[in-house]
Design brief:
Low-confidence stretches: 4-34, 283-294
Order of helices and strands: HEEHHHHHHHHEHHEEEHHHHHH
Distance between the termini: 45 Å
Radius of gyration: 22 Å
CATH class of one domain: Mainly Alpha
Oligomer: single chain
Helix content: 40-55%
CATH architecture of one domain: Alpha Horseshoe
Strand order of the largest sheet: 1-2
Number of strands: 6
CATH topology of one domain: Serine Threonine Protein Phosphatase 5, Tetratricopeptide repeat
Number of helices: 17
Shape: globular
Strand content: 5-15%
Length: 488
């Protein structure tokens, strides 16, 4: 069942007037002017406010974050259109519009969460448990926003409460470590406040296990494997999740909010503007061939990814379509496109597909746990091997043996291959390359190939993070507080 925050989030947005001018407001953090005279008072008000925060997260992932991270990786061709192709060529800079959208959208999310946290203790609740739940949601979403901001841009100013614009403008950037510390603290508090599960009519909201999983992902990003391991173990032993029997089921609208999904962004059809975009569930060129004929210029899948799948891997053709037929009957047998989210029912209108977008799947929890176990010590007959082979078996592949994966480093390589195949088009590949220190080697080898520029493009060492958007530097030109990342 879909969470109704997709609709009520829109209603909440009506209450907000976002800042639009550098003269009056700091675009760096779009500060909202809220009608607080009668709002933020009752339990239903805070539910509505939490829905509004989820709504902004959906807006961020609707295209900006997902396309940007996929575009940055070796999963996507440099011929991809829009800013995502620029990112794929490592030609992005402070003027790249997608970076501005991610920056501003993330601060809108932070501000909405801060507004909840500033007032929730004074609200009137019919059920006190929900005071904790909504506070936990605000902390979860704010922690997630700071995780993304830190990973994208490095250290950012830490705005952990509502402030006046003048105060915000004199809050200097922190380090990336400090940014991640705030994110981790928020996520940890969320694990203490959120419920283990929500009622049936509230499916899709963050649970304590979603908070534990995202916190574990943050710890893995920082190579804190021992801290991540017990969090992941808690999710596995909770008994609330299980891998989908078939890989396709992970991306069908009929399996939304299933035990495979620890946290998803909710999309709802019905003409409310809350559907997943057709560039992810592609607009079909020949509708009666759905989903076997489609094209999206947003993300052209690289042949490197397509060819990287092992023979017999069922995930390739579920995730990627090679070739299409246009309306004139002309066939393209070369181009590759993502079709991972296009296996459900076809939407009547563009931007109105019903399938949710996975942020944390149980399969990812298990693979992260296997990785953490391996980092604690290689075992040729341990649980890490069992997990890896369980996921390979679902994909139609044979189990790997200790002869094929004889040591800890070989297991790391096997995990890297498995994660790329499993999570294509799920915005995980780029951050996996960064956290495993493989980005420079992998991306420059990728860009040296004939199909990817033949060495014309190159990743440089400072490009593990992105440029601070120039628009924000213009709005706050005092370099004591906000400055550009080195290299840009």
């Amino acid at each position: 069942m879909k969470n109704k925050n997709s609709i009520t989030g829109f209603l909440f947005a009506i209450l907000i007037m976002a800042a639009t001018s550098c003269n009056d407001y700091l675009d760096l953090y779009p500060i909202s002017s809220l009608n607080t005279g009668s709002f933020y008072s009752t339990q239903s008000d805070f539910e509505l406010a939490a829905n509004g925060a989820y709504n902004e997260l959906r807006s961020l992932y609707n295209s900006n974050i997902l396309y940007s991270l996929e575009g940055r990786s070796d999963n996507v061709s440099i011929d991809t259109g829009y800013d995502y192709g620029i990112m794929s060529r490592f030609s992005d800079d402070a003027t790249t519009s997608e970076l501005l959208a991610i920056w501003q959208g993330s601060w809108i999310l932070v501000d909405r969460c801060n507004a909840i946290l500033a007032r929730i203790d004074d609200g009137t609740f019919d059920d006190e448990a929900y005071r904790s739940y909504y506070k936990g949601e605000a902390l979860f979403l704010r922690g997630y926003a700071y995780f993304q901001l830190g990973a994208f841009f490095g250290g950012v100013p830490l705005i952990d409460r509502q402030m006046k614009v003048s105060e915000i403008k004199t809050t200097a950037r922190s380090t990336q470590v400090e940014t991640f510390t705030l994110a981790a603290n928020d996520l940890y508090q969320a694990t203490q406040l959120l419920p283990e599960a929500w009622k049936t009519d509230q499916l899709g909201r963050a649970t304590k296990y979603a908070a534990k999983g995202i916190l574990a992902r943050l710890y893995l990003f920082q190579k804190k494997f021992s801290e991540a391991r017990p969090l992941l173990s808690d999710i596995i032993t909770s008994g609330k999740y299980q891998m989908a029997a078939n890989y396709t089921n992970c991306f069908l609208d009929t399996y939304d909010n299933s035990p495979e999904h620890v946290f998803q962004i909710q999309f709802t059809s019905g003409g409310q503007g809350n559907g997943i975009p057709e560039s992810l569930a592609p607009e079909m060129i020949v509708s009666d061939m759905f989903p076997q004929a489609g094209k999206s210029s947003y993300l052209y899948v690289s042949h490197d990814l397509y060819d990287s799948y092992e023979k017999g891997d069922l995930r390739r053709d579920i995730s990627i379509q090679k070739g299409y037929t246009n309306k004139a009957g002309v066939k393209d047998t070369i181009s590759c496109f993502y079709i991972k989210y296009a296996h459900g029912k076809m939407a009547a209108k563009k931007h109105d597909c019903d399938v949710n977008l996975p942020i944390l799947r149980y399969t990812d929890v298990k693979l992260m746990y296997a990785e953490a176990l391996n980092e604690a010590g290689y075992s040729s007959s341990g649980e890490a091997f069992t997990i890896l082979n369980e996921i390979r078996n679902r994909a139609g592949l044979k189990a790997l043996t200790s002869a094929e994966v004889p040591n800890q480093d070989a297991f790391r390589s096997a995990m890297d291959r498995e994660r790329r195949s499993e999570f294509a088009c799920e915005a995980l590949r780029w951050f996996d390359l960064i956290r495993t220190d493989k980005a420079m080697t992998v991306m420059n080898a990728f860009l040296s190939t004939k199909n990817q520029g033949n060495g014309q493009y190159k990743m440089r060492d400072y490009q593990t993070i992105f440029a601070i958007p120039q628009n924000e530097l213009n709005c706050n030109p005092d370099t004591k507080y906000l400055w550009q990342n080195p290299g840009y």
